[in-house]
Amino acid sequence: MAAESGDWRARDLMWAATLISTATIVSRLLGFFRNSLIAAFYGQTAIVDQYNAAYVVPDTIYLLLIGGAISSAFVPVLSAYLTRRQHDEAARIVNSALSLVLVVFVPLLLVGELLAPELVRVVAVGFAGHPAAIAATASLTRIMLAAVLFHALNGVLVGQQYAKKTFWATAIGPLGYNVAIIACGWLWGREIGIAAFAWGVLAGAFVNFVIQVVGVAAYGHPFAWVRDWAHPGLKRVGKLMIPVAVGVGLGQINLVLNQTALASLLPVGSINALQLASRIMMTPESLAASLAIALLPSLSEVVQQRDFQSFRRYLSRGFRVVMALTVPASVLLMLLAYPLVALLFLHGRFDLHNAAVTAGALVFYAIGIVAWGGIEVVSRGFYALHDTKSPVLVSAVTIVVGFVLDLWLLHAMKQDGLALAYSLTGFINLGLLFGVLRFKVHYLDGRQMARTAVRTSIITVLMAAGVLLARAPLGAWLEAPRVPFAERAAALIVVTAVAAAVYLWAADRFHLEEWRWIANHLRRRRAASSSG
């Protein structure tokens, strides 16, 4: 019976991960189209740097105050109540949290609107001495700040759905968010400038909120103004949330320093180049995040049942699948950085120099994909154990190390150095997290992880050889400055198909079981769809 339960959980986990991953990929594609539209309209210019800097302010406020609560606090706390079938109490916690978000965020955002120029000066230190740039960035910031309220409300609603293991609305919401930004930019981007995209961010946050409201409506617990802020469950959420919010905030500070504050000291366009490159890098990393999101409810459940053998098995399997996905993705992005950037952005006012700078940053960001993807999984292990302090301490150490690396490599390699520093910081963070978690649970199936790492590395080397052979006759379409979109896309598809074929062949030859798990899951889903 226990074995059957474990098999069911594994299938349920893979289904949730597939749903979230598919939606994430579509959302990323929409995000690339959005960024491509911005690049075509405005190039890689000062106004785009201002837009990116303005976006950082509300994003940082959200992550500092509530961003970490979804995965770290709400899911394990609500899972505990739902495991005990205390559904009314879980709903009371959610309603109390929603009312608390409104009470806290509305006045806070009003203060943020007033202090927008000062916030910009903190985030983009390179804008100092340029009052016009500060004023333009502050104006965009004020538009997007209001979106933080909807993001915060979404955080509570998404956490509720994760705890109940329902993922469709949480998967669709980001699609609506990106569609709204694209629509606003497409319709009004030439008339009112880049502010159209800022208004799109606000509209997209509202659309996402509406989708999450629909998603939780099926639970049968109506929304109510509940001010039970002393509820033990909500206190537990707060207790778990505060250290994680600090940890997430430290991680965000590292990102802001890397991609905005220090990048603003470099030539115009550097902020945009780093952010475009990091968004490409985050596509395979987001697959790891999707797996981690789906993994957390199962980890929390087995911890509640004191089944630590299953905890170790799920965590090990999750990390090994992440390695099997991210190691080849990292190498593939490094090998195809320029043609991919050219395909996505080399049109309109985005020129050859912009493409070369962005591709260079992408190569160094891609190095860290496996590290940041692994962090997504390992950190969920701490959250399931209700330990949110250890990741904070690790983040505190790595932000100091990351800042030192930023300063050192900035002078030597400019924006490429900032990208490399970010990747190296990821590996340091992952190594520390693994060390602390192993100390807590004593055993993490390290031999099996090492075996997967070695096999994946060998297979990836073979894949890289296949890519180099395939791209040689296609160089004119991949590397030439101006190539029709369809022709460059076709050449990239051919090379990527060769990479996939070689990798899958080698994975079978070297008995990489992580790919067999994925293939078997996809086969079951296809059979289920056919029978349905």
What's the helix and strand layout?
Elements: H1 2-42, H2 46-67, H3 69-83, H4 87-114, H5 116-123, H6 131-145, H7 147-163, H8 168-192, H9 195-217, H10 232-261, H11 270-304, H12 308-335, H13 337-345, H14 352-366, H15 369-384, H16 389-441, H17 446-471, H18 475-479, H19 485-509, H20 513-531
Helix pairs in contact: 1-8, 1-11, 2-6, 2-7, 2-10, 2-11, 3-7, 3-10, 3-11, 3-15, 4-7, 5-6, 6-9, 7-9, 8-9, 10-16, 11-12, 11-14, 11-15, 12-14, 12-15, 12-17, 13-14, 14-16, 15-16, 17-19
- Which secondary-structure class do the elements indicate? mainly alpha
Q: How big is the Rg?
A: 23 Å
Distance between the termini: 27 Å
Low-confidence stretches: 1-8
Overall pLDDT metric: 83
Helix and strand pattern:
HHHHHHHHHHHHHHHHHHHH
β-strand percent reads under 5%
Which range best describes the helical content: under 10%, 10-25%, 25-40%, 40-55%, 55-70% or over 70%? Answer: over 70%
Short account of what is shown:
Helix content is 86%, strand content 0%. The protein is mostly helical and 532 residues long.
